[in-house]
Design brief:
The protein is an alpha+beta fold. The chain has 12 helices and 9 strands. It folds into 2 domains: 100 residues, Phosphorylase Kinase, domain 1; 247 residues, Aminoglycoside phosphotransferase (APH), C-terminal lobe (Aminoglycoside 3'-phosphotransferase, Chain: A, domain 2). 53% of the residues lie in helices and 11% in strands.
């Protein structure tokens, strides 16, 4: 109880410091109120502050956990490519404070969810096409330009999938993985890494999905949360968007949109000629890798950070894996392992945690 109170006091102190910094950085004399914005899966906190007719986003990005320099560098480069990212009005790297332009309050997720309820598929199709266009501009930022990106190599891909073992299998499901279990995962994770590394390597946003795109009526959607960009597989961001962890679509639509994106990427010169089935294999294997990572991250957000709301996204995320593994004989053994150890008890385990019946 004392620690919780101390943490709350520390957060309030940071908020007060951020407000004072904003007054000084933008020479604001009038009294303002900071209103909290929904955050992302990190230690950053976001607030809006309105001065006259202008609304700003203030970011508390603790320097011990968040790299604001990378955010600012990538923001400037993406803005130069005519991508609608926040303008950085002021930044203090030592304090971990930023003042950004405001891109609105409607996430693409909100718009898509409403259209899904209304059966507005025609408008949904247009939204995804525009999101593909924006993605292709991001992917056009090549290595050798003024944006330098770390490689999304096999080690990083492996580390992402190991989150699934540690935080989900052991942490959420309570499975004591045997040597045989780990050897099986090593084998199939290796296949996923090989499939990813064989792809064309481009600028990868790394979290290009409906909660990091802000809906704009003119179609020039705002792009957020790009500070972890890397040079990596060209299907990664398309998978993040089309096989979104926060909203799902029928498999036939996923295939249609994936091939639409591939054709647009070919026209834009991002990739060369391709075979539909070979592309879909790369796309689906990339999806399995990303959804293993996401499942691990959602689990860690609860176990380490107390963010219980992400647990409800795990069944949807794992459903994508279940949906495709049966299509590819080379992944059949991993599918069997999931059917035996994960799926039968998944909902019971998560529901018990949400209801406070499961001690972890």
């Amino acid at each position: 109880m004392v620690k919780a109170k101390t943490d709350k006091q520390a957060l309030q102190q940071r908020q007060n410091e951020l407000e004072n910094w904003f007054h000084d950085a933008l020479n604001v004399s009038e009294k303002i109120s900071l209103l909290p914005l929904s955050g992302d899966a990190s230690f950053r906190r976001y607030f809006t502050a309105t001065v006259g007719n202008t609304t700003y986003v203030l970011v508390d990005a603790p320097p011990e956990t968040e790299n604001s320099r990378t955010f600012v560098q990538i923001a400037k480069n993406l803005h130069a490519a005519d991508i609608n990212v926040p303008v950085v009005h002021a930044v203090d790297y030592e304090k971990g404070f930023m003042c950004l332009s405001y891109l609105g309050e409607t996430m693409l997720w909100n718009k898509l969810d409403a259209l899904k309820q209304q059966n507005g598929l025609t408008e949904v199709q247009g939204i995804y096409r525009q999101a593909f266009n924006i993605l292709l501009r991001i992917q056009g930022k090549r290595e050798g330009s003024d944006i330098l990106l770390p490689p999304f190599d096999g080690v990083m891909l492996q580390n992402e999938m190991d989150l699934f073992r540690e935080w989900f299998c052991a942490g959420i499901m309570g499975i004591d993985l045997s040597d045989e279990d780990n050897a099986l995962m090593d084998h199939y994770f290796g296949l996923l890494i090989d499939a990813a590394m064989e792809q064309s390597q481009v600028c990868v946003h790394r979290d290009y999905h409906s909660r990091n795109l802000m809906y704009q009526a003119d179609g020039n959607f705002g792009v957020l949360d790009f500070q972890d960009a890397v040079l990596g597989p060209f299907t990664y961001d398309a998978v993040s968007l089309i096989k979104d962890c926060y909203i799902s679509w029928p498999k036939t639509l996923i295939r249609e949109w994936a091939l639409q994106y591939a054709n647009m990427a070919q026209t834009a010169g991002i990739i060369g000629s391709f075979n539909d089935e070979e592309f879909l294999f790369s796309f689906d294997m990339m999806g399995v890798q990303r959804h293993l990572k996401a499942t691990g991250i959602f689990s860690r957000l609860y176990l380490r950070d107390g963010k219980k709301q992400y647990l409800t996204d795990i069944p949807r995320t794992l459903a994508y894996i279940k949906e495709v593994l049966g299509d590819y004989p080379q992944m059949y053994g991993f599918g069997l392992w999931l059917e035996k150890h994960i799926y039968p008890m998944l909902m019971t385990r998560i529901n018990n945690i949400l209801k406070g019946k499961q001690a972890l």
